[in-house]
Amino acid sequence: MMTRRLTAVGLPAALFVVLALVPLYAGVFDDRFVLLFATRILIFAIVAVSLDFILGYGEMVSFGHAAYIGLGAYAVGILAEHDVWAAWISFPLAMAVCALFALVTGAISLRTRGVYFIMITLAFGQMAYYTTTSLSAYGGDDGLTMWGRSELFGTGLFNGDTSFYYIVFGVLLASYLILKVMTRSRFGRVLEGAKQNEARMEAIGIDPYRYRLTAFVLAGTIAGLAGALMANQAEFVSPAYMSWHRSGELIVMVILGGMGHLHGAILGAIAYMVLEETLSGYTEHWRLIFGPLLILIVLYGKGGLLGAIRGR
C-alpha cells in the first residue's frame, strides 16, 4: 500500500520534472525538432487529461472529444483572420465557445447511456467537423493558415519555441492540478459513486446528471484551450483536428496510459505520439504494428502502462 502511494505521488512529479527539462535537452543538443515535437505532445496530453476526467472517473465515453480541439483552434484562427491577435481575447473566447458547445451537447447526450451516448457524441462531433469543412470563407476542407501567433499582452512569448513550450507546460500542469483536486473532492466522489451505482446516489438525494454535465463542460473547456494552443503551435487550423479518427486516438491514449489516473493519460499521450513518430518512420502502415502492441499492453499491463509500471 505504501509503495502504491509513493508511486501515485512520485510518478507524476517525476513525469513533470522530465517534461520541464526537455527545453534544456533541446538547447544542449541544438535539437529544435525535439522541442517542437514535445510541445505537440503536451498539447495532446492536455486533451487526454480532460478526456480521462470524464472517461476514467465518470464513465462517459465521448467519441466526439476532438471537436473541442477544432472549435478552440478555429476560434483563434478566425479571429486572427480578422486581425485579432490578442490572446487575452481569443483564448477566453475559444474556451467559452467550447464550454457552450459542451453544455448543449452534454445536456442532450447525458440523457442516454452506453452505446447511445457514444453514438450521440460521435454525431455531434461529426456535425462540428462538417460545419467547419463548409466554411469556405475560412479555407473549408483545405484549412486556415495563420500568419503568425497570438500575442500575450503585447509580448512575443508565443513566438519563441522555448517560451511557448513552457506556456503549454504550464497549462498542462494547471489542468492536471485542477482536475486532480476535483477528483479528490466531493465532486469527484459523486462522479465515482454514480459510475459504480447511480441508483444508490439518487436514493440518497444526489442528482448525478448535474455533476456529470459540469464535468463534461469542464473537460470540453480544457480541450478547447488545448485547441487554441494547437492553432498557435502549428500556425494552421484544419477540420481534421475534430474528425472522429482523432477522437478515437484520444481514447486510445487514455487507455494506453491507464484509465482513471490523470497522469496515466499524460503517459499515454507521450507513448502514443512517440510510437506514432517512430513507427511511421519505418512504414506508412504503422497502425498494423501499433494495434497488436496496444492489445498486448491492455491485456497484460492490467491498467495500461501505468498498471505495468505499478506491477499490477
UniProtKB/TrEMBL annotation:
Residue intervals passing through the bilayer: 36-55, 62-80, 86-108, 115-132, 163-179, 209-230, 250-275, 287-309
Membrane topology: Multi-pass membrane protein
Entry's localization field: Cell membrane
One Pfam family recorded for the sequence: BPD_transp_2
CDD domains in UniProt: TM_PBP1_LivM_like
Annotated GO MF terms: branched-chain amino acid transmembrane transporter activity
GO cellular component, one term: plasma membrane
Key words, A-Z: Cell membrane, Membrane, Transmembrane, Transmembrane helix
Main location class: membrane
PANTHER family for the chain: ABC TRANSPORTER ATP-BINDING PROTEIN (PTHR30482:SF17), HIGH-AFFINITY BRANCHED-CHAIN AMINO ACID TRANSPORT SYSTEM PERMEASE (PTHR30482)
Protein name listed in UniProt: Amino acid/amide ABC transporter membrane protein 2 (HAAT family)
Lineage of origin: Bacteria, Pseudomonadati, Pseudomonadota, Alphaproteobacteria, Hyphomicrobiales
